[in-house]
Amino acid sequence: MNDIADRIRAVMGESSVRGFALALGKSPSTVQEYLKGRVPPADFIARICERFGVSERWMLTGRGRREGGIGEENSLYTRALDLELLTETIELLEQGLAERATSLPPTKKARLIATAYDLAVSQGGRLDQARVQRLIELTL
User: Fold this and answer.
1) Residue 123 above 90 pLDDT?
2) By percentage, how much of the chain surpasses pLDDT 70?
3) How far apart are CA 140 and CA 13, in angstroms?
4) Confidence (pLDDT) at 31
């Protein structure tokens, strides 16, 4: 991967620009600019690393392991999970998917769960059904 835009695309995977931007608290147009080659600010890179468990070194240089390891400052592995909140998040997402009579491939479902959980954490442990429905809409 030659540049940071390629590495952002790699982290995005199958996510839409809109869904990825939502997960990072940025506008889709801002993320689109970074994908076109505009150099993102350090706080954007740090947020990607934190939210998606990506090594800062890999994100910035393309060298080393992509995944953040145990003990790396901005790694998901160093953050304690609130299992009750995670369970509630998964239950709300499963309910929303069942209401739509749809399912997601495991990778896409995992990203949706992670995004919804991070949103709930950022909102003080609250996640309402309307936000869950919106996240599902953005994912489909």
Assistant:
1) no
2) 89
3) 14
4) 94
CA distances from 16 to 20, 29, 38, 140 (A): 6, 12, 19, 9
User: How would you label 104-124 residue by residue, b for 16+ Cβ within 10 Å and e otherwise?
Assistant: beeebbebbbbbbbbbbbeee
pLDDT of residue 35: 94
Longest Cα pair distance anywhere in the chain, in angstroms? 43
Q: Is 54 helix (H, G, I), strand (E, B) or coil?
A: strand
Residue 85's closest CA among 54, 61, 119?
Answer: 119
Torsions phi, psi for 63 (to 5 deg):
-105, 155
pLDDT digits (tens, 9 = 90+) for 51-103: 888 888 888 888 877 876 433 444 343 445 677 888 888 999 999 999 999 88
Ordered domains of the chain (ranges, CATH): 4-78 (1.10.260.40), 83-139 (no CATH)
